[in-house]
Amino acid sequence: MAADPSTPTTGRRPGAEISLHLLGGFRLLHGDVPVVVPRGLQRVIALIGLRPGATRSHLAGLLWPDTSEDRALSSLRTALWRLRQDPCCPITTSGDTVSLGPVVRVDVDALVGTAARVRDGEDPCAAAVLAAGRHDLLPGWYDDWVLADRERLRQLRLHMLEELAGQYLSAGRHGAALEAALEAMAAEPLRETPHRLVVRIHLAEGNAFEAVHAFYVYRDLLLRELRLEPSAAMTALLDDTLAPIREATRDAPAGPRRAPSNQVAPRARRDGVTGAAARVTDR
Questions:
Q1: Residue ranges of the domains in the chain?
Q2: CA distances from 24 to 8, 27, 28, 168, 186 (A)
């Protein structure tokens, strides 16, 4: 094993399964043993993991965008040579293409595979789906290719969770549907679609107040952060629920209601039960 600190070192024999973790930060493991990889080589390994089978010129252009093609290719050749000094090198080459070896498992691939199974209507382990991709891709890295893939995977996970919530809702599994929708909501609090799902789930369970409360929690957040209103599609979810309440309120006799002399009439609060109920009848 080379002692050069510019090359990765493992202390493991070839043949052990290698796992590459890119979500939440770069980690390369041989079995359960961490591999010490210099930052420059981390970038090379990470990009190859995200672009399997890419050509050398494509990889070099992404890794060294501000240099000439010849110099970028030379830098890539040097990096690949350094990686091969480790007998457990995770990289393989075939002609002009570079890939990870067949024994390398990448957490990003697991997320993509889980999303595909959800999209195809399979029923993977709910806990595994909720946990998949919970951490951002390579936080603290700001290469253009990292930023693009980080957003791609973030959107993939959000749509996966929303798709799962919708499937569970259609199947009448309201608790599981709510859990998936809330996970998506936590990942992106200002995104409307998971909030809309939460409202639909509460309505499907017959919990009108929960649905109205969830709507106004999101409306208040959106107004406070972006000075926007929920879409017409989200507002329409509550029309049928609120219509009879408004009608009953409008038709009720307007008899005098006095608070006892030793009490103060409660004022509607925006963040509690009274607040939500007050807003329902005020609309």
A1: 18-102, 107-171, 189-251+265-283
A2: 20, 9, 12, 28, 17
The DSSP element (H or E) to which 21 belongs, if any, is strand 18-21
Token readout for 44 is: 């090379």
Quote the pTM value: 0.81
Place of tokens 């926007």: 228
Write out pLDDT tens, residues 161-189: 999 999 999 999 999 999 999 999 999 99
Largest distance between two CA atoms of the chain: 90
The sheet with strand 33-34 has its strands ordered as 33-34, 27-30, 18-21, 104-106
Over residues 192-240, the pLDDT tens digits come to 999 999 999 999 999 999 999 999 999 999 999 999 999 999 999 998 7
**Per CATH, is 18-102 categorized as 1.10.10.10?**
yes
From CA 37, how far away is CA 6, in angstroms rounded? 8
Q: Write out the two tokens for 140.
A: 């603290």
Amino acid at 240: D
What 3 state SS string does 44-73 have?
Answer: HHHHHHHCCCEEHHHHHHHHCCCCCHHHHH
Neighbouring C-beta atoms of residue 266, cutoff 10 Å = 10
Helix runs in 64-143, H state only: 69-84, 107-119, 126-131
**51-60, 136-145, 164-173, 259-268: range with lowest mean pLDDT:** 259-268
Name residue 9's beta-bridge partners: 36
**β-bridge mates for residue 279, sequence order:** none
**Dihedral over Cα of 231, 236, 242, 243: its sign:** positive
Going by C-alpha positions, the residue among 168, 149, 232, 162 that lies closest to residue 191 is: 162
Cβ-based neighbour number of residue 184 at 10 Å? 25
The gap from C-alpha 103 to its chain's centroid, in whole angstroms, comes to 27
